[in-house]
Amino acid sequence: MSFYPPLFVLKTVADNIWLADGPAISFYGLPFPTRMTIIRLDNGGLWLHSPIAFRPQLLAQIQQLGPVQHLVAPNWLHYAYLQEWQQACPTALVWLSPGVQQRALSRHLQLHGDFELGFSPDSVAATQWPQDLYTLLVGGSKVHQEVVFFHPASKTLILTDLIENFELEKCPLWSRPLFWLAGNYDPDGKAPLDMRWSFRKGKVALRLAVQQMLAWQPKRLILAHGRWYPDNAVAELLRAFRWV
Fold it and tell me: pTM of the entire structure?
């Protein structure tokens, strides 16, 4: 299913940042559109966030921008295609958020990771892209941990599942009531109901993380699922996280 055609094609967001939309992936039977973000770092290398299904023609487009240096699985759910990209880009460093390795093993997938993204501001990530990207591990949920990223040069904030924004008119008819119940649909996209429930005892930690995102004063907000926000990012953050 194609939500955001053309698929497997680079789409410019701003200087040194691109998107590539992929086909829908089934999650609990629901169709989730997929999206990858590509950033060219100051050293000329490329950073790939939440890789979509691998296609040689997409890799060829990406390699015209520079060498692939980093592959990032930003939360415990976004690793499905990482192994394919690892095989195609064997010199790239692989970054896993907490929980990815365990979930992959539970599904009998041997996933190699070079580093785990963590809380520390002086973590390995800071030594790899010190000025290019700010990294924040969002805590507060026993189920969902997600690493968010801010690209200061373009004032772009990159989230994965903490905000989902499904356009119901693009979804199959049978699935629309489920997205409506979850509350993660456009124009009021937010974390789905089950994820919000998982933060019920950790809202202080989540609130602190949201305050940091707001302090960065992003201009745009990229999401992995659904319509993303090319402007008014601060207003969208305040709206989407009003529940916390």
Answer: 0.95
